[in-house]
């Protein structure tokens, strides 16, 4: 099982009354397949799998891989266990990676809770009157620990402004999430959090010494090792492919594993979203069978939230068609996992600005190299070389921090005010000496966390995004931002890395499929439903949306244009999620 379910109760102190475990519903826990793993003064842990013991009450749940060879860890030697505990878990982040949670005792009688960097095993935190409860999912908190969910409207406002930027605050009151690479400490009723890992740690100190060809070779081996490690537990897989670079790289790694695998590509009626030609070229080259399914707007139920039961409205309604087709294909083929290239654009530095050229100018080196970078960015962005140079030079005078714009459109002033912290994220605060291209790259990686966080434990077949893994991210961040551009292409290092594994039209493809036409089909078919959800729903009742502006978009007739329809679709998704919790 890729994501073990668990629930842990941490008392206010080891001297707390013996009845501190009474709120936990043991029979219900047993019904969920949870068994007591640790029963210690101050800590009671129930989980669906035994975990990796570190001695005493110290334990690691989930998947752990060694950094040097990506081998899965089945047990820790005594000396290594002591080192992990002594360092408060930082040794795990330094020498290992994966999807894990560590619970460690400290010398002061408290406990530390560490979540793996970029790991997709969630850590939800709720402070009850009896102590601190951490769990893999909300259902366990409700059914076993007695958590009563209600809406956190500040969290909802933050989500509306920046849905892809994960914050500790969720959209459920009193429920927080421990971010990947963070460590929480529970001591005598107080919960504090510090960050022990950041992608900034991997940025090259001497970028001019990084050779792009060596970087491509290292990236290829890192991706192959990490993807293979993540997927080794599955004998049969279903790969979602589009013929784009990221999903093709994952498919190539799967094909190289010599496991049973089938590919699925989703198709729209509009030619812009029909990528069968590329998908067929890819799967033929890899020797993989391919299925194609037409996206049908009639299959989309806007009243149903795929994020029901999750602490954020993190699923989009238009993805219902892909999800249904993927799970049907997985059942037919016996696939144990649905694998995709989500987050690849972010990890492979798909930056669309002159910031990488600014990095090149700041690093120094020959003018010919800077001129080449300027030409590559100009070709990619369809701007003149002069304009790219001017933008890069202007960027020299600015703070290197990457600024996430956020989306405040169609929101009321009170919603915007409530979301004042929506764009806060520790990775968006660059250290001294940071360069803007690296800051932009890491900003994209921060947004990619939304792909792996908040997985649904109820899914019959897990969905895995193996490119969002600590060793891959660290390898990519260590590559100077300007190396990611070549011959007018972005993500160039990844293209070079897999040039020999993919058909050339795939490895160096310029175009990118779009599913905008499918979203428009859903919108036009469901105007009345969207009006009901958004104009008269819970968001409107709470004063979060601009009803007049929304009415203006819905009243427009003729072909759908602009971006307002996509914003209303997002509002409808949030509304469906709100109703799923209000009705509980």
UniProtKB/TrEMBL annotation:
Annotated pathway: Amino-acid biosynthesis; L-asparagine biosynthesis; L-asparagine from L-aspartate (L-Gln route): step 1/1
Domain (Asparagine synthetase): residue spans on this chain: 219-357, 465-579
Pfam families: Asn_synthase
Superkingdom of origin organism: Bacteria
Reaction catalysed by this enzyme: L-aspartate + L-glutamine + ATP + H2O = L-asparagine + L-glutamate + AMP + diphosphate + H(+)
EC number: 6.3.5.4
Coiled-coil boundaries: none
Recorded family membership: Belongs to the asparagine synthetase family.
Name listed for the protein in its UniProt record: asparagine synthase (glutamine-hydrolyzing)
Taxonomic source organism: Stakelama saccharophila
């Amino acid at each position: 099982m890729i994501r073990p379910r668990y629930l842990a109760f941490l008392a206010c102190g080891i001297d707390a009354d013996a009845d501190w475990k009474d709120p936990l519903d043991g029979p219900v826990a047993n019904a969920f397949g949870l068994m007591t793993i640790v029963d210690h003064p101050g800590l009671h842990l129930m989980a669906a799998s035994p975990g990796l013991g570190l001695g005493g009450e110290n334990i690691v749940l989930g998947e752990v891989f060694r950094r040097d060879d990506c081998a899965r860890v089945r047990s820790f030697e005594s000396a290594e266990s002591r080192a992990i505990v002594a360092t408060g878990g930082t040794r795990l982040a330094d020498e290992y990676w994966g999807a894990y949670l560590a619970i460690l005792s400290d010398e002061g009688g408290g406990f530390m809770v560490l979540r793996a960097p970029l790991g997709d095993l969630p850590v939800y935190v709720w402070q009850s009157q009896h102590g601190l409860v951490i769990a893999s999912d909300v259902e366990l908190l409700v059914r076993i620990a007695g958590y009563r969910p209600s809406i956190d409207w500040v969290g909802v406002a933050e989500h509306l402004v920046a849905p892809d930027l994960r914050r500790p605050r969720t959209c459920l009151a009193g429920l927080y999430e421990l971010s990947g690479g963070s460590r929480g400490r529970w001591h005598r009723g107080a919960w504090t959090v510090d960050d022990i890992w950041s992608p900034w740690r991997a940025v090259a100190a001497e970028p001019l010494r990084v050779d792009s060809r060596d970087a491509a070779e290292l990236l290829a081996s890192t991706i192959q090792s990490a993807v293979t490690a993540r997927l080794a537990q599955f004998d049969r897989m279903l790969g979602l492919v589009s013929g784009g670079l990221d999903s093709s790289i994952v498919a190539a790694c799967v094909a190289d594993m010599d496991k049973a695998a089938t590919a699925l590509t989703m198709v729209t009626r509009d030619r812009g979203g029909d990528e069968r030609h590329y998908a067929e070229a890819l799967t033929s080259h890899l020797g993989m069978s391919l299925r194609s399914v037409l996206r049908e707007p009639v299959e989309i139920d806007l009243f149903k939230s795929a994020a029901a039961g999750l602490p954020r409205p993190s699923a989009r309604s238009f993805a219902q068609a892909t999800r249904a087709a993927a799970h049907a294909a997985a059942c037919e083929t016996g696939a144990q996992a649905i694998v995709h290239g989500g987050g690849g654009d972010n990890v492979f530095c798909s930056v669309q600005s002159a910031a990488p050229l600014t990095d090149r100018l700041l690093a120094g080196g020959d003018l010919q190299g800077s001129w080449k970078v300027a030409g590559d960015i100009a070709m990619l962005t369809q701007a003149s070389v002069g304009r790219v140079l001017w933008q890069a030079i202007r960027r020299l005078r600015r703070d290197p921090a990457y600024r996430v714009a956020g989306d405040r459109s169609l929101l009321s002033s009170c919603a915007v005010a409530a979301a004042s912290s929506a764009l806060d994220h520790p990775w968006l605060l660059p250290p001294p000496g940071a360069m803007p291209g690296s800051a932009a790259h890491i900003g994209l990686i921060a947004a990619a966390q939304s792909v792996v966080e908040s997985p649904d434990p109820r899914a019959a077949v897990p969905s895995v995004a193996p490119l969002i893994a600590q060793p891959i991210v660290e390898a990519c961040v260590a590559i100077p931002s300007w190396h990611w551009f070549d011959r007018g292409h972005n993500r160039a290092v990844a293209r070079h890395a897999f040039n020999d594994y993919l058909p050339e039209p795939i490895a160096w493809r310029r175009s990118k499929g779009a599913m905008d036409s499918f979203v428009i089909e859903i919108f036009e078919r469901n105007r009345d439903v969207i009006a009901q959800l958004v104009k008269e729903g819970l968001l409107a009742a709470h004063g979060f949306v601009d009803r007049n502006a929304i009415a203006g978009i819905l009243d427009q007739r003729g072909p759908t244009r602009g971006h307002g329809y996509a914003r209303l679709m997002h509002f409808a998704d949030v509304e469906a999620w709100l109703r799923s919790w209000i009705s509980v």
